[in-house]
Write a sequence for this structure.
């Protein structure tokens, strides 16, 4: 059987020096019917390896559930990598960062404040053991030593940026080895002496993450690890976008030059990202380095392969660089055809208030609960209470992360964590106060990993603390039959009528099965979009993204359905599909 080992200066594949030229492609950010196409385009660029994280909470959305089917079928993904003749690197965390909700750590695990986060704590380790029991058999049986594609597994992620608990790292190593992982175990850390020192142990082979100045960064890694292959585990050839900020781009020529410098040193590389994909549904994470910044739905990343699978100038530039170091196939992928352009009238309108019976069950509380206390790990939650004319103002300890405030259904304003606003004046009248709370994504980096979501009390007014609440977690992960039935029965609205939210709108449009679409979101405020019942994700006029990518496999021939939940208001009850993506304006 083949072997893959750490040599004195190189990785050794069957005993011979081997330069890993890898690209990151997260199966959980790509429609499963497109996995093969994206992997093939990686091989055609000259890559010999595909790297993927594993997002624990994607497989385990609830305590006691573990899913490996359809979009979660990691075994099938790895088999497709093997079928392309490529190797795989798997990074199963348990923490992955990755601009993913909570960095992959499940909300249901960390809701218990007794459970440790990213340290040697028995309850935390017991949960990881169970996760590994469910996941690692499929990785172990696909190791290169057993005839499969997997050449290495990474433990934790940039741990030196968070902690220094070596017992924790050693427990993770032992749990991997006990479950049959025999290929090299790696760590990755930023190009920072303190982080490199804290983030690894001698049983792990160290790698480094950076986006430029390859020689300087690899020299730093060398100081912490005198022998063995040099590897940049994340060569940041682009960057992620946050709502309300500009769209990030990284020039292809600069990336190509840095890649050339790195490969010329004989180092191995994993391009982060080769293909970014999409944060579908409620899967995007957030950063909070003093200001909370949620991640956009698009995870295009300005990567060589665009979000919709098109090769870019960067793909060509990198292919040319790689061809100086490794054989590159002659074949070039075809450009995708422009997507259909059409306008769709949304002819059904259902106010959110009328849809509530289909979305969740209200429960009474004698204090203000977090959404973690409700066992509701993502998305939207409706909080209700009664106020009097004397209350006059509402102030919360914290809002995680954004709430639409209304009195008897009339909009009062918005509380936003990003804007550090947690106090709002109320009209001087009695009525039902509602806060439609949006969890905009769990923080995926830094000390706020693991914090609870929801409204954080106490909730005070000018005269008292509000303690009697009725709270409804909303099921919005798919257009469920009960919601579909209410939409069927909703009154028709005239084409183009302005939309007052929060309300659902629905329309139908013709398509060819399998054709990619790009839904323009300009003219709309903030909300969610489903196509044929699948939650594409969030849109927001704050930008930068102005289109949502609709993967072709979601479309069928004949009638297709689009449902929008608009929170604020829209110019007109219609949506448009565009020929290509519009990811917003960039700084350069
Ligand atoms: C770090 C993390 C990745 C990702 C990138 C930024 O390198 O390891 O998971 O968050 O930053 O995209």
């Amino acid at each position: 059987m083949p072997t893959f080992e750490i040599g004195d200066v190189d990785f050794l594949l069957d005993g011979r020096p081997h330069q890993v030229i890898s690209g990151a492609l997260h199966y959980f950010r790509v429609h499963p019917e497109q996995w093969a196409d994206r992997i093939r385009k990686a091989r055609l660029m000259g890559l010999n390896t595909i790297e993927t994280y594993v997002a624990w909470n994607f497989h385990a959305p609830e305590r006691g559930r573990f899913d490996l089917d359809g979009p979660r079928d990691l075994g099938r993904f790895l088999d497709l990598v093997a079928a392309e003749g490529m190797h795989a690197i798997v990074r199963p965390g348990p923490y992955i960062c990755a601009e993913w909700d909570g960095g992959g750590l499940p909300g249901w695990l960390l809701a218990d404040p007794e459970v440790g986060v990213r340290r040697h704590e028995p309850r935390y380790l017991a949960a990881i053991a169970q996760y590994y029991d469910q996941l690692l058999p499929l990785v172990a049986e696909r190791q290169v030593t057993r005839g499969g594609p997997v050449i290495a597994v990474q433990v934790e992620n940039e741990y030196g940026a968070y902690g220094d608990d070596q017992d924790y790292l050693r427990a993770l190593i032992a749990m991997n080895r006990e479950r049959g992982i025999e290929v090299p175990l790696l760590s990755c850390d930023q190009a920072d002496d303190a982080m490199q020192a804290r983030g690894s142990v001698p049983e792990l082979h160290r790698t480094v993450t950076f986006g430029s100045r390859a020689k300087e960064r690899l020299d730093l890694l060398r100081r912490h690890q005198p022998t063995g292959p040099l590897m940049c585990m994340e060569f940041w050839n682009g960057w992620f976008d946050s709502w309300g900020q500009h769209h990030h781009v990284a020039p292809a020529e600069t990336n190509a030059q840095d890649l050339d410098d790195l490969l010329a040193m004989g180092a191995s590389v994993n391009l982060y990202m080769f293909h970014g994909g999409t944060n579908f549904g409620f899967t995007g994470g957030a950063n909070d380095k003093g200001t909370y910044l949620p991640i956009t739905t698009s995870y295009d990343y300005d990567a060589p392969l665009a979000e919709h699978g098109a090769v870019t100038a960067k793909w060509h530039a990198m292919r040319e660089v790689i061809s100086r170091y490794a054989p590159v196939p002659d074949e070039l992928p075809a450009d995708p055809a422009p997507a259909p352009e059409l306008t769709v009238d949304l002819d059904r309108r259902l106010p959110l208030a009328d849809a509530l019976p289909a979305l969740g069950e209200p429960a009474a509380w004698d204090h203000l609960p977090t959404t973690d206390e409700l066992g509701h790990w993502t998305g939207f939650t409706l909080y209700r209470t009664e106020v009097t004319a004397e209350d006059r103002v509402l102030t919360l300890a914290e809002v995680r992360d954004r709430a639409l405030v209304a009195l008897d259904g009339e909009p009062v304003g918005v509380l936003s964590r990003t804007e550090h606003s947690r106090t709002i004046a109320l009209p001087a009248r009695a009525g039902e106060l509602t806060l439609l709370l949006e969890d905009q994504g769990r923080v995926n980096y830094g000390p706020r990993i693991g914090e609870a979501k929801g409204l954080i009390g106490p909730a005070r007014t000018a005269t008292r603390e509000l303690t009697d609440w009725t709270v409804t977690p909303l099921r919005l992960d798919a257009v469920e039959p009960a919601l579909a039935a209410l939409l069927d029965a909703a009154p028709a609205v005239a084409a183009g009528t302005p939309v007052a939210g929060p309300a659902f709108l629905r329309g139908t449009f013709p398509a060819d099965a399998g054709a990619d679409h790009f839904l323009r979101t300009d003219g709309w405020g903030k909300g969610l979009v489903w196509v044929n019942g699948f939650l594409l994700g969030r849109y927001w006029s704050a930008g930068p993204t102005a289109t949502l990518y609709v993967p072709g496999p979601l479309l069928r021939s004949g009638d297709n359905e689009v449902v929008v939940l608009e929170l604020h208001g829209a110019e007109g009850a219609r949506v448009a599909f565009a020929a290509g993506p519009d990811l917003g304006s960039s700084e350069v």
Q: What stands out?
A: The two ends are 50 Å apart (CA to CA). The pocket of alpha-D-galactopyranose is lined by residues 96-99, 157-158, 209, 234, 240 (CB under 6 Å).
